[in-house]
Amino acid sequence: AAARRSRVLSPVLLATTLDEEEVRLLNSLARQHGGKVVTKWSSAVTHLVSTTRCSSNGAAAGQRLCGRTIKYMSAVLSGQWVVASSWLRASSAAAGWVAEEEHEVHGDNSSISAVSGLGAGGPRRGRLHLEGGGPRLFDGLHFHLHGPFNKPSR
């Protein structure tokens, strides 16, 4: 059976925590099938592609979890697709961008409780909320942070 295709014909792709081979595959697929690879997050990004090989915090087998990076948090808050690197391999095998749902990241390895499952589904909920016409998370809110802070890691 042919793989279902993505509805996004020319994705704007951003990588986080991919290894060198996955980055090469990402760039190659963008050239072959249409798309643009960027190195910094912006609201134009349609897909964040992440490895899911990192520690799983005891998550259930089969859960796709990624590291909590600034790119990841920005994509979730903006309702962008957050997909595992398996999406790249499936798209390569299908000779075109495949539907994202089977490759959507379930969450990050810092926020999902292995016992209760709380924290799962953040990327999906953020995306569906925005697709349904809702505002971006924290839209219109202002925050004041006080105290000493360390510069975030890349």
Describe this structure in words.
The chain is α/β, with parallel strands linked by helices. 27% of the residues lie in helices and 13% in strands. The protein contains four helices and six strands; from the N terminus they run βαβββαβαβα. The strands form two sheets. Strands 2-1-3-5 form a four-stranded parallel sheet, sandwiched between helices. The longest helix has 14 residues, at 20-33.
How is this fold's topology laid out?
Elements lengths: L11 E5 L3 H14 L2 E3 L8 E4 L14 E2 L3 H9 L2 E4 L1 H9 L12 E2 L13 H10 L23
Parallel strand pairs: 1-2, 1-3, 3-5, 4-6
Helix pairs in contact: 1-3, 2-4
Order of helices and strands: EHEEEHEHEH
Q: Would you report the number of β strands?
A: 6
Q: Taking strands numbered 1, 2, ... along the chain, how are they ordered across the largest sheet?
A: 2-1-3-5
Q: Indicate the proportion of strand residues.
A: 5-15%
How far apart the termini lie comes to 40 Å
Summarize the structure.
Helix content is 27%, strand content 13%.
Q: Which key terms come to mind for this protein?
A:
alpha/beta; two-stranded parallel ribbon; 154 residues; single chain; 6 strands; four-stranded parallel beta sheet
